[in-house]
Amino acid sequence: MNVHGRDLSYFTSVAEELSFTRAAERLFVSQPALSKQIRMLERQLGVVLFERDRRTVRLTAAGEALLPHARAVLAAWQAAEAAVEEAKAAERCTLVIGMSTSPGRGLLPALRTRLLSRQPDARPVLRQVNWADPTAGLADGSSDVAFVWLPLPDDDRYQYAVVAREPRLVALPDGHPLVARAASDPEGMLDFTDLLEEPFLALPPEAGPLRDYWLALDARDGRRPRIGGVVASAEETHEAVIGGQGVALLATGNAPLIVRDGVAAVPVRGISPSRLAVAARQDDRRALVLAYLAAAREVGATTG
User: Where are the alpha helices (H) located in the chain, listed in sequence order?
Assistant: First the structure.
């Protein structure tokens, strides 16, 4: 049996109007088409649903039995359609924002304010992503936009706006001799060459060019780094530094995540500053995504 919602809607309208003419007008169909559809439904069910004569239309016992169930099915389907529309609207308004650590720096509230000024119905949702994914969910589509550190792998796949440019520091155990050396420097800094013999903490290999960046390969004149350990979170980095596994480069704005309980951070000369960006896939032209990128460009312009 293959009874459709349209069949039940036609049946219910005739049952409520007790007139094929009025029911056809209510449904915006022709009376012959409505009559044909009711006859087909009766054949499918193997019963007569209406008693008809020239003047009146009445429900049969079978029609009376069917009517409350038909109404219930139609009501359930209307509720289902409403739920689907609500879900579609929520999906259109939801913006998933990927990040490997909280971006801090007042960025989230600043971007949220600007986003909502452009898209008042937007629902930004934050999503934490492991450091092994340098795109913070953009590559596999689990994030719509993301806070990422540059450089990105497959850079041409993404569009982005830089929201922070910061010097890089090196995280060291408090008692490390290089902390004392930095203290004696007129600028309180270390040269990157001072770090060449140190074991470094590295991102997971999956991080690709970002792993190389935080090992400062471009400043080593071809010398391979010593890898003291692999870290995939701020907490792992803190514990590895404390445990003497290695030192770690980090952005100035991320220092509070690492520099505590026996870990110091010292500015480093001879390496490029870090760049934090808001990125999206290059081919993603959705209004919410473009609005968030526009907000990021505004914030980036104010932060320099």
Answer: 5-17, 20-27, 31-45, 61-93, 107-118, 177-184, 209-214, 234-242, 255-258, 287-303
Q: Is 187 exposed, middle or buried (0-12, 13-18, 19+ CB in 10 A)?
A: exposed
* Contacts (Cβ under 8 Å, ≥6 apart) of 27: 9, 10, 13, 34
Q: Tell me how far CA of residue 21 lies from CA of 7, 31, 32, 111, in angstroms.
A: 17, 6, 9, 59
Report whether 74 contacts 8 (CB < 8 A): yes
Asked if 23 and 34 count as a contact pair (C-beta separation under 8 A), the reply is yes
Inter-residue contact 271 to 249 (CB < 8 Å): yes
Radius of gyration of the chain (CA): 33
Mean pLDDT over 202-229 rounds to: 93
Structure pTM? 0.69
Angle between helices 20-27 and 31-45 (to 10 degrees): 100
Residue range 35-64, pLDDT digits in tens: 999 999 999 999 999 998 878 999 999 999
DSSP code, position 127: E
pLDDT value at residue 88? 66
- The pLDDT of residue 87: 67
- The CA-based dihedral angle spanning residues 20, 25, 30, 35, taken in that order and rounded to the nearest 10 degrees: -20
Cβ atoms of residues 299 and 185 within 8 Å: no
Q: Are 239 and 173 in contact (CB under 8 A)?
A: no
Regarding beta strands 145-149 and 50-52, do their DSSP bridges make them parallel or antiparallel, or are they unpaired? Answer: unpaired
Report CA dihedral (233, 236, 242, 243) to the nearest 10 degrees.
Answer: -150
pLDDT of 89 > 70? The answer is no
Measured between alpha carbons, how far is 58 from 118 in angstroms, rounded to an integer? 57
Contact 149, 135 (CB under 8 A): no
Number of helical (H) and strand (E) elements in the chain, helices listed first = 10, 13
Q: Encoding tokens for residue 98?
A: 């990927």
